[in-house]
Amino acid sequence: MMSFIISLMNIGFVDHFFLIWIKAWIPAFFIALIPAYFMGKLARFILSRIIER
Q: How far apart are the two ends of the chain, measured CA to CA in Å?
């Protein structure tokens, strides 16, 4: 949702806005999945250490 609003503010609501947004969102989503996967594992590890104390 945030990327939608930011794109809307940057380029305005043009006729082909949704096509531009989807073309930008799809690669960004899959690129963001990789760090999210590793950060989830790191957060789980850190929280388990904190809870064990």
A: 38
pTM of the model: 0.56
* pLDDT tens digits, 31-47: 999 999 999 999 999 99
**Nearest Cα residue to 25 out of 36, 33, 14, 13:** 33
Percent of the chain predicted with pLDDT > 70: 100
From CA 26, how far away is CA 22, in angstroms rounded? 6
In this structure, the dihedral spanned by the alpha carbons of residues 8, 10, 16 and 22, taken in order and rounded to 10 degrees, is -70
